[in-house]
Amino acid sequence: MKLFIKHMVSMRCKMLVKEELKKLGLHFIIVDLGEVEIMEKITPDLREQIRITLLRSGLELMDDKKAVLIEKIKNAIIEVIHYSNELHKINFSDYLSEKLDYDYTYLSDLFSEVQGTTIEKFIISHKIERVKELIIYDELNLTEIAWNLQYISVAHLSNQFKKITGLTPSHFKNLRYKRPNPVEEIGS
Could you tell me if residue 138 is left (phi over 0), alpha (psi between -120 and 50 degrees) or otherwise beta? Predict the structure, then answer.
């Protein structure tokens, strides 16, 4: 049986969910971002037990089909931006449409209606947080970061970074205390 989980957006969340399912004596087939497939049949009582367990960790069990689809959109974007090295090759509208098997216009309209922001703004928020992470790691220069995150130039990256954060990338790099935002808090 499949369960859909809101706010499950990192590898740490996946590990946490696996641990909690094991504690409940459940066997999982797949634990992915926002989605779990369990071997057992879920009774209403067991579902409630899972819901309470997840809530303690800041995660929510979802039933609403639109909410599930929104989480799938968010998780697909997060997975590509934060955990893939193939971002520079991706057209997000095609990627989301293909991955979720829906027309992109429908996904975009639904996302905007429910979230009060666009998919594009959500993507930009996550890309800027990824830029912050990469600046902090100091393994890539701005040209490499711009290329990896689909910016047409360093100037484009810098302008968008300043628009979102109020700082230039170099000013951010020179800050003493810098910390990227947790993935689950970006663009929500």
Answer: left
Q: How far is residue 161's CA from residue 153's CA, in Å, rounded to a whole number?
A: 12
**Separation between Cα atoms, residue 118 and residue 4, nearest integer Å:** 22
d(CA 100, CA 35): 13
pLDDT by residue (tens digit) across 89-131? 789 999 999 999 999 999 999 999 999 999 999 999 999 999 9
CB proximity list for 157: less than 8 A, separation 6 or greater: 131, 142, 145, 146, 149, 151, 169
Q: Does residue 29 contact residue 38 with C-beta atoms inside 8 Å?
A: yes
Three-state secondary structure call for residue 3: strand
> Closest by alpha carbon to 78, among 188, 183, 3, 151?
183
**For residues 128 and 107, what is the distance between their CA atoms, to the nearest angstrom?**
22
What is the three-class DSSP state of 111?
Answer: helix
Could you give the domains of the chain? Answer: 2-63 (3.30.70), 66-117 (no CATH), 122-185 (1.10.10.60)
pLDDT band at 11 (very low <50, low <70, confident <90, very high): confident
The residue among 10 and 101 whose pLDDT is bigger is 101
Say what the pLDDT of residue 173 is. Answer: 87
